[in-house]
Automatic annotation (TrEMBL):
Keywords: RNA-binding. One of its GO terms (cellular component) is ribonucleoprotein complex. One of its GO terms (molecular function) is mRNA binding. This is Sgn1 protein. It comes from Maudiozyma humilis. Residues 37-120 form the RRM domain. InterPro entries: Nucleotide-bd_a/b_plait_sf (IPR012677), Ras_GTPase_bind_prot (IPR039539), RBD_domain_sf (IPR035979), RRM_dom (IPR000504).
Amino acid sequence: MSRNVQQELFSEDPHVTITVPLTEAQRRDMQAEADSRSIFVGNVSMDITPEMIEEHFGRYGPIERITVVNNTHKKGTAHAYVEFETEDSMLRAIEADLSVLDGNVISVAKKRTNIHAFRHQGGIVWKRGGATKTVP
């Protein structure tokens, strides 16, 4: 996701735009909002295409973005993320859990928002699922 957002200027020239850097909080909010409309699709064939994923999940609602990740720990499979236009579409798409896509039984779950480590008073604070661990 871009760390910049373009805002239109209210000037006489409609083609003039200004790029304003996003704050870290704004970037996190945008990511969390997108993740609230997204699913994780596991055990996907290495030969899968975004078009095949769109055909399989398009029946649940309009899709904004599809990301296929072939670099996984389990050899021979990949995973994907599908971002829908609405949260309702995402919730309907979860019904596709254990369906077959390109010969593989896939797992479908709501996408979680990654929480990255950050520095705090000389250590790293990891926050995931409400737990906090400080590493000196």
